Amino acid sequence: xxxxxxxxxxxxxxxxxxxxxxxxxxxxxxxxxxxxxxxxxxxxxxxxxxxxxxxxxxxxxxxxxxxxxxxxxxxxxxxxxxxxxxxxxxxxxxxxxxxxxxxxxxxxxxxxxxxxxxxxxxxxxxxxxxxxxxxxxxxxxxxxxxxxxxxxxxxxxxxxxxxxxxxxxxxxxxxxxxxxxxxxxxxxxxxxxxxxxxxxxxxxxxxxxxxxxxxxxxxxxxxxxxxxxxxxxxxxxxxxxxxxxxxxxxxxxxxxxxxxxxxxxxxxxxxxxxxxxxxxxxxxxxxxxxxxxxxxxxxxxxxxxxxxxxxxxxxxxxxxxxxxxxxxxxxxxxxxxxxxxxxxxxxxxxxxxxxxxxxxxxxxxxxxxxxxxxxxxxxxxxxxxxxxxxxxxxxxxxxxxxxxxxxxxxxxxxxxxxxxxxxxxxxxxxxxxxxxxxxxxxxxxxxxxxxxxxxxxxxxxxxxxxxxxxxxxxxxxxxxxxxxxxxxxxxxxxxxxxxxxxxxxxxxxxxxxxxxxxxxxxxxxxxxxxxxxxxxxxxxxxxxxxxxxxxxxxxxxxxxxxxxxxxxxxxxxxxxxxxxxxxxxxxxxxxxxxxxxxxxxxxxxxxxxxxxxxxxxxxxxxxxxxxxxxxxxxxxxxxxxxxxxxxxxxxxxxxxxxxxxxxxxxxxxxxxxxxxxxxxxxxxxxxxxxxxxxxxxxxxxxxxxxx
Length: 707
Ligand code: ADP
Ligand code: ZN
What we know:
Elements: H1 3-14, H2 23-31, E1 36-39, H3 47-56, E2 60-64, H4 68-80, E3 85-88, H5 94-105, E4 111-114, H6 116-122, H7 126-129, E5 132-137, H8 152-155, H9 160-163, E6 169-173, H10 178-188, E7 194-197, E8 205-211, H11 215-227, E9 233-237, H12 241-253, E10 258-261, H13 267-278, E11 284-287, E12 300-305, H14 312-319, E13 329-335, H15 337-348, H16 353-367, H17 373-380, H18 393-396, E14 401-403, H19 405-417, H20 424-431, H21 437-441, H22 458-470, E15 474-477, E16 483-486, H23 488-494, E17 501-503, H24 508-522, H25 528-547, H26 551-554, H27 557-566, H28 571-574, H29 582-597, H30 613-622, H31 627-634, H32 638-650, H33 663-675, H34 682-688, H35 695-706
Parallel strand pairs: 1-6, 1-7, 2-4, 2-5, 3-4, 5-6, 8-13, 9-11, 9-12, 10-11, 12-13
Antiparallel strand pairs: 14-17, 15-16
Helix pairs in contact: 2-3, 15-16, 19-20, 19-23, 20-22, 25-27, 25-29, 30-32, 31-32, 32-35, 33-35
């Protein structure tokens, strides 16, 4: 099959114009009849790797899937794309089973989702009579005892390879740690499978960690965060069932519709909550980690952890539930030392204490990182980024380092003089010369170090001691009241044999300034594009209700976003939108076209005092000023003004860039740009034109070309 043909099938059946990384190679491998193991992060696009071959291969494809809810959704999604699919599991009546078996035999069905136990049970029965073209094993990590989701039935799937000799097997998972990978290979007994290992980097997820935020403030922060994105879906993960209920209640009393979910709820309540979430009827779920596995919802825009997760695998999986559609999504991890103690107490009772403790250490290091978090996270999964990510809180706000020797020595000597018998709080109290009962009782006020650190606040000391722990100056004796112990490295610092750098805590003014800038940003007026996007979402919600389908199965957010910015006017333009295939166009296309064609943006009422710099640019532009005048009034460079205008144009505002630039110049830049094969760097074009044009002119032309 020529490669253009695969793309054609992709577009007409799934609505996508191009393949994601690896998809095409995997599909080709399957079509050649080879076995494959696919390791791809959540949202990477695994399903298409067996669904597309299923359409090409002559007979049926069996898809082994562990979760009934997952099966149902995938089958719905396929049907909406006009593909004949069905599922077979214990929820079906005997009668339904019989008619389904008949449909499979007659070749009516291209993809059959089946639970592992059903497949194992009937592999010598009706399944052995079927003409099968491919067997896909989804969530293949379930085969491994080391994974977080072991299912004994999966281990029996190893028998299948022998029985169905001449057809390709494909095993897929988003869990990539090495032991699990080996287990999949070993237990499924695949036939010299080709391994497809994708990058696990999810650049669209922003990473942020906040430590030691008092509960009241945390509630305030999260409430504000949610109110700024009231139409978006998100999950708050909590360690305990009780906390999930507390959070849901707190949000509800503050006017936010939220529900809770944990394993202690009756099954019907659980599936109800889950369904509401998937259907966009409920935007926020406060849940234990029992929630999420198998939730194939692409438009989760944020995930917040209320506590520190047990390990980085779990954490990565949980934040990975956000942004499966590839659009920017936010993740925030809150934690405090109480979490650490609780987790440590859990671990004590386990026979794998040592391993768990190490894993906990790793996630603590991540949480306390002073360098790019994504690099730390991915290096845990043996993937090494060569550059800082630019989308984590550390990259966005690099810490400022100071010489920390004196600070460290003061803390070290307090611990040393108390014979390592104190925890962080007592240590700080000694350093600050606190007058507490405990201090006088233990006669700490007679120590030489008493009061030597009273120039720093309690919070500052806490900030520094946490870093000292992370940098390996102190160790916490978790099993001895969390007392601080001095490490060999700590002794070196105490004896002035080595230096240490620490990050400076922010001052109150700095924190305030930051909060202000965040608040300013959030006071945005919806741009026309955003308004239309909200309208299209409404339409989708209505349709979903009517048809009893999950909203995202109709169109993903990413498709709606593209419609809102491209504003297709007719069928042909609509078919260009990613995610619009033939079947979906027939079913829903005209409804969305109508909505777009009749859309009129609401008047923008701007008040000068509150408007953002973009909006100010827009107003001045509307007054007909030249670029230079704009730049002068705003006291910025022409380049900045141009950037604003381009951004406004992209957001759907009516901006005419042509009027700022001579047609001849446009022509010249265009020619060079195309001749050089559309280089990425502006400088390439700039140089090629021998410095005869301005950078901003190049930017304008590129923006015009993009439009
Ligand atoms: P996974 O099973 O790996 O978590 P899915 O198969 O559910 O991922 O795919 C994630 C999302 O990406 C889905 O919404 C899917 O429709 C979309 N997707 C898959 N392949 C493509 C592609 N080639 N172009 C655009 N979107 C795609
Ligand atoms: Zn980073």
